[in-house]
């Protein structure tokens, strides 16, 4: 099992560019989430999904879109990158009550 | 809504000393409780979880935590730490009924000195 796979690991974007952060899991987990981690702020939920075709907003959704067409994949799209979106992004997946398994993260810098 | 407060942002201890990392939560409904560890430049790894039953939960790497419902706390403990325990530790909660969204505390950086 690969667990949760995130790509790319590092990315530098210019302000206004768009991109997609990829996330895939091979554990048949129903729940998937995207978090951003910023110093001193812990992890904040961006978007989450409770199953294929079902997504909802978390605490900090502005500037991000998600979709979940399959159980395995949960990509995060940055529509028009801003310096405030410089962060480390984590994707995670879970079964009910099991605790989330996290990917290794994507470190994004917007200049 | 749920919230989590980790009472110490940094905890320095000497090697082989005991340590306690404190976590308080707020929720009007029943929750699951978790502790995660993050080593430098890595993702988060689940240390332990409380779902139901015994309030003392044992996890990996010799850590344990005790759920105290009356004090809404879930403190993490280890009787003797090692240099390799240097990391950031996150407490988190999720509502039992619902979308399993994790709400995290701000993290506690544990530094082990030789």
Radius of gyration of chain A: 13 Å
Averaging pLDDT over every residue of chain A, what do you get? 94
Shape of chain B: globular
* Largest sheet entry of chain B: 6 strands, mixed
Describe it.
The complex is a heterodimer of chains A (111) and B (114). In chain A, strands 2, 4, 5, 6, 9, 10 and 11 form a seven-stranded mixed beta sheet that branches. In chain A, strands 1-3-8-7 form a four-stranded antiparallel beta sheet, with no helix packed on it. The mean pLDDT of chain A is 94. Chain A contains no helices and eleven strands. Chain A is globular and about 35 Å long. Helices cover 0% and strands 50% of the residues of chain A. With 111 residues, chain A is mostly beta strands. Chain A has strands spanning 4-7, 10-13, 19-25, 31-37, 43-51, 54-57, 64-66, 76-78, 87-94, 101-102, 106-110. Chain B has strands at 3-6, 10-14, 19-21, 23-26, 31-38, 44-50, 56-58, 64-68, 73-78, 87-95, 103-104, 108-113. Chain B has 114 residues and is mainly β. In chain B, 0% of the residues lie in helices and 54% in strands. Chain B contains no helices and twelve strands. In chain B, a hairpin with a 5-residue loop joins strand 5 (31-38) and strand 6 (44-50). In chain B, strands 2, 5, 6, 10, 11 and 12 form a six-stranded mixed beta sheet that branches. Chains A and B meet through strand 4, strand 5, strand 9 and strand 10 of A and strand 5, strand 6 and strand 11 of B.
């Amino acid at each position: 099992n690969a667990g949760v796979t995130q790509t790319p690991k590092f990315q530098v974007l210019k302000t206004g560019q768009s991109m997609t952060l990829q996330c895939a899991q091979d554990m048949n987990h129903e729940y998937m989430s995207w978090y951003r981690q910023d110093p001193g702020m812990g992890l904040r939920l961006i978007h989450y999904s409770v199953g294929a075709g079902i997504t909802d907003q978390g605490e900090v959704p502005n500037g991000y879109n998600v979709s979940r067409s399959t159980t395995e994949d949960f990509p995060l799209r940055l529509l028009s990158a801003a310096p405030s979106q410089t962060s480390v992004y984590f994707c995670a997946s879970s079964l009910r009550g099991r605790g989330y398994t996290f990917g290794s993260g994507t470190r994004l810098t917007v200049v | 809504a749920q919230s989590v407060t980790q009472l110490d942002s940094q905890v320095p201890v000497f090697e082989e000393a005991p340590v306690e990392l404190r976590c308080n939560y707020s929720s009007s409904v029943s929750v699951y409780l978790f502790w995660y560890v993050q080593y430098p430049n890595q993702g988060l790894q689940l240390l332990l979880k409380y779902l139901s039953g015994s309030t003392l939960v044992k996890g990996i790497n010799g850590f344990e935590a005790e759920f105290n419902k009356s004090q809404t706390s879930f403190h993490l403990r280890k009787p003797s730490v090692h240099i390799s325990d240097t990391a950031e530790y996150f407490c988190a909660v999720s509502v039992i009924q619902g979308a399993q969204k994790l709400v995290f505390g701000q993290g506690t950086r544990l530094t082990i000195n030789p």
